[in-house]
Amino acid sequence: MTVFYRGRCAYITHEVFQVRDPESAAYLIRELSQVHMVQAEPTCGTLLPRAASIGAGAVAFIAAAARGELPAAAVWPLLSLAVITLSATMLAGCWRSERQLYELRAICRGRVVCLFRTPDKQLLGQIGRALQRAVEHNLDER
Asked: What are the φ/ψ torsions at residue 70 (nearest 5 degrees)?
């Protein structure tokens, strides 16, 4: 058995591509074609907690206004300012915390699948080259 890559995240032989991180998956090399790397769309993993905190702040503000603790003329401008400020803070924090992800994709059984995802471009390159060699090895043996 020829081993093309052995590491913490993946294991590649002439027969199988196994991913160990973040979740385990295995693909038969003979079912993979058009292996390619892409830059994934950045995501903000902390969006839900931040949205919840904005919602809680808005609810507290509305509750204070409903009890009459704020003058009626000041409620809507202050509420608008609070929502805009909290939204801007959430977006700024989200942009600051997002990491660029890179993905290794291929065609498997007629559909595009994401085989591996990482923020480490060098690691993705190593695994991608090893997988490409495994696919080419498999084609040579057919």
From this structure: -115, 145
Strand extents, DSSP E, the chain: 3-6, 10-13, 16-19, 25-28, 32-39, 102-108, 111-118
Give me the average pLDDT of each 10-residue run along the chain (142 residues): 91 94 87 91 60 68 64 67 72 63 92 92 94 88 68
pLDDT given at position 139: 82
Q: What pLDDT, on the 0 to 100 scale, is given for residue 63?
A: 66
CA distances (Å), 42 to each of 33, 52, 63, 127, 139, in order?
26, 21, 36, 21, 34
What values do phi and psi take at 4, rounded to 5? -95, -30
pTM of this structure: 0.61
90 torsion bin: left (phi>0), alpha (psi -120 to 50), beta (else):
alpha
**How many angstroms separate the Cα of 59 from the Cα of each of 51, 64, 67, 75?**
12, 9, 12, 13
Q: Which of 80, 5, 58, 7 is nearest to 35 (CA)?
A: 5
d(CA 85, CA 142): 62
